[in-house]
Each structure stands twice: as C-alpha cells, then as structure tokens.
Amino acid sequence: MSVLVNKDSKVIVQGFTGSEGTFHAGQMIEYGTNVVGGVTPGKGGQTHLDRPVFNTVKDAVDKAGANVSIIFVPPAFAADAIMEAADAGIKVIIAITEGIPVKDMLHAKKYIKDRGVTLIGPNCPGVITPGEAKVGIMPGFVFKSGKIGIVSKSGTLTYEAADQVVKAGMGISTAIGIGGDPIIGTSTKEAVEMLMNDPETEGIVMIGEIGGQYEADAARWIQSKGNPKPVVGFIAGQTAPKGKRMGHAGAIIGGADDTAAAKMKIMKECGLHVVASPADIGAVMAEALK
Predict the structure, then answer these.
(1) Which residue numbers belong to the known binding site for substrate?
(2) Which of 24, 48, 107, 248 is catalytic?
C-alpha cells in the first residue's frame, strides 16, 4: 500500500523541456516512474526523453490519461501551472519550484481548494513510494520499500531519515516532502493523516523545523486519535536564533511556540517518540514497533 503515488500513477512534468525538468524527469524515468509525457507551451507535438510533449495539461490528461503532475516551472509562472493542472483534473500536484511569491500561492491555494486536489509543496523534494514511483528530486537509491511512512518539511532530512530507517532494518511505505515555504498545499497533520489511514504503514517519522504551528497541530491531532501508530519526531533548528530565517522561507521563529524546544516539548506531551538527533530515528522507531 502507499499514499499519493504508486506504480499506476500516470505522471506528467510541467516545465518538461527546461534544464531542471529534463534532468529530474530523466531520473524519474530511470527509476521506473510511469512518466507519460510533459508540458511545455509551444512545443506540443514534439518528443522529449522519448515521451510526448503537450502544449497544455488538459491535452496531457485527454491524450495520455495523466493524473499526477510535477512542476518545474520558474517561480513567476509556477502558481499558474498549479492552477492549470487543477483545472485540467489532475488530482495530485507536486510543486518542486522554490521562491513562488506568497501572494501568488495564496491565490493558487484558494483556487484549488474545492477541486479535490492534493497539492504537495511548493519548495519540496516531492513524494516517493519506493520501488513504484519517484515523483520528485530525491535520490531514489536511499529509499527501500517497507512499512514506515515519512513526513518532512526538510528535503535533505527526508533522505537522512530514510537512510536511518533502512539501516535499522526497515523500509519506507511512502515519503512525503511537504515543503518549507510559508504557504504550502498540504500540512504536516494532513500528510500524517494520510499515512495513519494507510493500512500497511506501521509507523511514521515526522520531521519538522522551527517556525509555524504545523508540527504542534499534527502532534495534537495524533494524540486526539489515541496515538494509533508510533510516531518518531525530530525538529531541525535547535540552535536557531530568534528572528533569523534558517534555510527555508517558513523556518523563522516568530513566537515562543515556534522554537525547536517548544515544539519538541509539545510532541513529547502528545506521546510522540522525540529524538534530539536524526541519527537516532531508525533505532527509536525499531524500538517503538516492538
């Protein structure tokens, strides 16, 4: 079982013929992802990476049956790309683009709200169901198939968590990089809920950062459900000074509850297994599953 993407996903790449889209689409195809084509306006009818190029997402849906899109469109046009995909009936949209203006994202998020769309990102590494589909920029070889779900605000820590889980003798059901921008499509709680509802995911790794309330909201929701599956939590930015943005645009301490220490305290109080270092994720998860 998995969430969001699997071997049956029909994936298109928006920004297909650009340098980023070309490189990562090639990696996804090599991994075995079912990439059915891509979209670059004005280049419809051409072939790229042995896949058809379409002028619009609607063409890709009508002619190739696409149901998942990954976006490598430049920031100024990326919100429009998200809305175009939603308009065309794509149900899972994964926006890799970093630096989309907040005003644009507010508009795009409102636009897709009632269209039955799951948006992951922007500014995220994507989603991977190991052995089935890699729809993102993560190094596929790190991820082995298994029963631990990962939800992470940080790209590189997604890979680190997967590595630790695999080294501890387990594997990954689906890993979701939700993105680190101030406005993102899917919150930590929403991503955790997907994995809680997946019958074959037995434990969840939840990686957060300073800034915002996503992790606290997720922890309180997990507690409200009676902690149905063990969740190992880690918060990056434990030494971050107040008021200074660290890495992601959304990683900034705005108030007392935004610090790593405050988030870790809430997570512990809610019954999560909180680790001080990513190096402990695998061992603590293995112990929690006993």
Answers:
(1) 159
(2) 248
Q: Does the pTM exceed 0.90?
A: yes
Handedness of CA 26, 127, 258, 204 (dihedral sign): negative
**Is 248 a known active-site residue?**
yes
Tens of pLDDT, residues 198-247: 999 999 999 999 988 999 999 999 999 999 999 999 999 888 777 666 66
- What CA–CA distances, in Å, run from 143 to 95, 156, 204, 277? 21, 13, 15, 20
**Which residues are CB-contacts of 153 (< 8 A; sequence separation ≥ 6)?**
177, 178, 179, 180, 188, 207, 208, 209, 214, 236, 248, 250, 251
Give the model confidence (pLDDT) of 89-128 as tens digits. Answer: 999 999 999 999 999 999 999 999 999 999 999 999 999 9
Q: Where are the alpha helices (DSSP H) in the chain?
A: 19-31, 57-64, 75-87, 102-112, 155-167, 188-196, 214-224, 260-269, 281-288
